[in-house]
Amino acid sequence: MLNSNTLKPILFCIAFAFVQMAMAQSNIVYLIGKGRHCGDSVVLRWNAEDVFSFAQLINSTVHIERKTEADKNFVPIAKQSAVPVQNWSINQETKNQSLLLAAASLQQLSNTAKEEPKELSSQLELMENRKFFWVNLSLAADLNPNIANLCNLRFVDHKASQYKDVQYKIYIESNSFISDTLFIFLEGGKEMYRNDQCTLSATEGESSIRFDWVADKSYSAYYIQKSKNNGVTYQTLNSSPMVIPANQGDKPILFWTDSVKNYKPNYYRVIAIDLFGDTAMISKPLKAMGRDKTAPPMVTGFKVKENSGVLNLTWDLVDVLSGEKGIAIGLKHSSEARYEPLHKTLLPTKTTSFEYKPSTKEKDYYFILQLFDTAGNSSKTEVYCQLEDNIPPAKPVKLRATVDTNGVVCVRWNKNLEKDLNGYLIYFSNSETSEFSGIVNTPYPDTVFYDTLSLRMLNREVYYRIVATDYRFNLSPTSDIVKVLRPDTLKPVSPLIKDYKISDSSIQILWVPSSSIDVVSQTLLKIDLETKTSTRIKLNLKDTVYNDKRIQSGKQYAYSLSASDESGNVSPSTKGIVLKTYKNIYLPALKVFVVLYDSVSNTVKLQWQLPEGCADVLKTVVYKGKVKDNMMPMPSDIKKGNLVFYDKSVGRGMVYFYAIKVYFVDGSQTLITSPIGIFTN
Prior knowledge:
Layout: E1 2-3, H1 14-17, E2 28-29, E3 31-37, E4 42-48, H2 51-58, E5 61-68, E6 75-80, H3 97-112, H4 120-143, H5 145-150, E7 154-157, E8 166-173, E9 178-179, E10 182-186, E11 201-205, E12 208-214, E13 221-227, E14 235-236, E15 253-259, E16 266-273, E17 279-282, E18 286-288, E19 303-307, E20 310-314, E21 324-332, E22 340-341, E23 353-356, E24 364-373, E25 378-386, E26 400-403, E27 408-412, E28 421-429, E29 437-444, E30 448-452, E31 461-470, E32 482-485, E33 496-502, E34 507-512, E35 519-528, E36 533-539, E37 545-548, E38 556-565, E39 577-580, E40 586-587, E41 592-598, E42 603-609, E43 617-627, E44 630-633, E45 644-647, E46 654-664, E47 669-670, E48 676-680
Helix pairs in contact: 3-4
């Protein structure tokens, strides 16, 4: 019995076809398979585990049974057999190569089924032929669902989408052999397959591009595609599918080489086909093109000589053959460094010398001469020169220091660029005008130094400076002095809230700033007491007033202030105050207000709509008048929740104006609507 969850992912790949092929036939047919949810259906795919089992499978009836959460036992749902080759609708016009390959392979398997040679060599040859046809047929079934259907290797369950969990049992009906039972479990409607991306890499060569990618054995085949219109459309380059060779390891590499014109870019991608015949993966597009990769010949005779403080570089005249463009000279001062160009444009190919004035700060000189062609290819020649060293290192720069609350000082500076730098000497003093004492008297190799200060001393200021030294004991000028302060652990005095002003749209807070002289910032803490959310508002140092307009009417807010000093100490927060904004009782006028006249009943109908989220209605007042500037409230008894009013006290042939105002139980009220006039004709 085989469980689909335990099957290896190389189910129908060519690599699988050659694993554990038995020479001797058996009376047991072994099946392997998988299933996939496809939204409105479930697709089942299976195959035989060896050539003998496949021969029995292709000539037998396959039974498919299903079990869901609603079933106690498996229920038969289908039984099917392979379609004979003569019924495959193949004619001279058929251009489907996979269909032709499958038909030919199946026919050859049928032709060799009756052959049983006595000689061992003939038996081995026959077995290899059968395996070859079986592999081709299996691959064709992977790539074409129609072929899988014709060969009795596929079934689609169109009723499975209504079930959450579903199980299948597949076996062969036969009296001449024992059929293995294949179980396939699909849980929760999830697809039981991977859909990983692969990374396509390109090696751009002369008039060719080689593509490589790591293949996945869970896929049956690959196609590589090319786009000549910036990825709008693609054409497939390989007419036959690319499969993974049987001798590949866990991470097989597939490759493809495309012959191209140099410097004409195209886009490429690979697609993978799985055992269900679906495109299971499409790689990200890769832009590539062919390039001229042939470097020009090396320049000969390159040498350097010092003369009167100048380095003279000379070389032999370049023999211009084809495409030589110019010469570049580069320089570096250590073997590990990278070369820097000594001129902005290429020197003409007829140039044979170059002069360079050496720096007084450097001892080692590495020169490179490169000959470039028009394609950017280059050949290179190198030479080395060493000068006497009597120059001290440069003055250390950007000395800086920080100290934490425990008195640990971190001193940093920029590293000198001299190749022969040996380290740094570090000095310390409690006064800028006093003599500095050496705390590191041997070359210190790093650019970060830690020191610990005593927190019991009264003076807060501490000073550091450094000197660089090289291997020949040349000392640099002394660095600039850096000052640090011993930790300040005293919290500043808190600000004092002295007044506030409240309206329905803002709250204004007034306060007296902290009296501590080292305060650098102030923070206002605001808490919405209804939502329990808090907001920290950064204030300028000189601010004494804050006008908070991000409020809602009728809500409560709490405010408190704190101050921070230059050492990061934060004062205790001021005693918080709780303030409530005034409620705005005037709401906008009703937006939906309709006046209609019914001439049959001589009645005016007024209809309106309340604003969303308003409180309960206390009363509704209707205003009426013959002119819109002189309307009076009508005596009316409009019940709560009513949105319609009928005015029967109207005369014919008159003009009346109407307006509405609504009062709510929470004290709020709408503004009176704009008058709407109507003629009672």
